[in-house]
Amino acid sequence: MGIMATKELTPQIDTILAAKRQALNERKSKTPIEAVRALASMQKRPLPFLSAIAEDDAVTLVGQVRYGEGVLAYDPVTTALDQARAGANAIALFTDESLYAGGLDDLVLVSRAVSVPVVSQDYFFDEYQIVEARAAGASALVLRASLLEQSKLRALVSATQRNRMTAIVEVRTPAELNYALSLSPYVIGICPQDFRSENPLAPEWLIRPLIPHNIRVMVTEGLHSLEAVQTAVQIGADAVLVDAALLEDPGDAAELQNILRRSYSNPF
What CATH number is associated with residue 67? Predict the structure, then answer.
């Protein structure tokens, strides 16, 4: 099995993974991977993600469409379109399948509705899921090093690249980063333990200077404040994922664009 049974896995994540394994086995029993590959081969080429810095050297802004506990009215297509109109250069789709089983359907709908790359933030642990995401229109995937054995992570990065998508390898520790870099990913994702931290010298940000300059860096946890976004820009992130609320407020959305176009010196 590719999932690591570590003390880092919370009961909530264990529940999610168990639900996803069961759902995946059911899909596999109904549709062989060869059929999913055939469907994936008929899709348009994935849109490039972080292949170039955004216009005026701005940091890439990634909006998040998220279903989870506390969401009262969930309309992924409308949310994605609104975020793109508010200036998002890409859309990240996250669904918690312990509560909601429509993630793949939403990925299809969102990828067809918007003209920007769509990043799938699902919990990936099997090549079948990679091919499904390609068939559904994803341009990039977040692969979580903390949840995968090294051999499985290598296999999934390779599968993502074979399907012409961008592999974003999310790391939380220097050890995970060292192995991730050996896989030659185009993007490293950093996921601060306290993603709302406004202090650029806080421990959760210190992995950034260990990443070579030729590797793109994305903050893969939704930032909740303009101050946290500014911190991400200060440490040299190439892309930031922001909470939907920051794009819903016109004033915050305008200030976001200002922050992402500013040039800061690296504090390290």
Answer: 3.20.20.70
Has residue 268 been placed in a domain? no
Residue in this structure with the two tokens 């559904």, named with its chain if needed: 136
Q: Report the candidate in 166, 214, 147, 152 with the shortest Cα–Cα distance to residue 46.
A: 166
Report yes or no on 5 lying in a domain.
no
How many domains would you assign to the chain?
A: 1
Q: What is the pLDDT of residue 8?
A: 45
Nearest 10 degrees: Cα torsion 198, 203, 209, 214 = -70
216 within a domain of the structure (yes/no) = yes
Residue recorded with tokens 């995946």 = 24
Quickly count helices (H) and strands (E) in the chain: 10, 8
Closest alpha carbon to 111 in 67, 77, 71, 155:
77
pTM of the model: 0.87
Q: Name the β-bridge partners of 61.
A: 240
What residues of the chain score a pLDDT lower than 50? 1-11, 53-55, 195-196, 200-201, 264-268
Mean pLDDT of the chain: 85
Distance CA 153, CA 181 (A): 12
What Å distances lie between residue 164 and 15, 48, 137, 189, CA to CA? 31, 9, 11, 18
